[in-house]
């Protein structure tokens, strides 16, 4: 379970996302958290430079789809 999962689900619902879209967003957030867990970094403590690196890595991997980036943006507002 991701931090603030229920609040995030509510935010997704308020934005009109259906259950499948919300679940996919949770997968994207879980991948983000997994990528930084070993460094002790989470959305609450990530620096702008670390986030730029993460997004840059997504670009290199071809994982810069709109849904993923929107999920990160929504989650960062939790």
The N- to C-terminal Cα distance equals 14 Å
Q: If you average the pLDDT, what whole number results?
A: 89
Class based on secondary structure composition and strand pairing: mainly alpha
If you compute it from the alpha carbons, what radius of gyration comes out, rounded to the nearest whole angstrom? Answer: 12 Å
Number of domains: 1
Number of H- or I-type helical stretches:
4
Q: In total, how many beta strands?
A: 0
Strand content: under 5%
Low-confidence stretches: none
Write the H/E string, N to C. Answer: HHHH
Give the overall form: globular
Estimated helix fraction = 55-70%
Please give the largest β-sheet. Answer: none
Describe the protein's architecture and organization.
- The chain has 78 residues and is mainly alpha-helical.
- The chain has one domain.
- Helices cover 69% and strands 0% of the residues.
- The chain contains four helices and no strands.
- It starts with a helix and ends with a helix.
């Amino acid at each position: 379970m991701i931090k603030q999962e229920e609040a995030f689900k509510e935010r997704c619902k308020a934005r009109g996302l259906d259950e499948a879209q919300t679940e996919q967003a949770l997968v994207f957030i879980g991948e983000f958290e997994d990528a930084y867990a070993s460094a002790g970094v989470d959305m609450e403590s990530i620096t702008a430079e670390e986030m730029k690196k993460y997004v840059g890595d997504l670009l290199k991997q071809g994982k810069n789809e709109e849904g993923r980036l929107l999920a990160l943006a929504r989650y960062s507002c939790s």
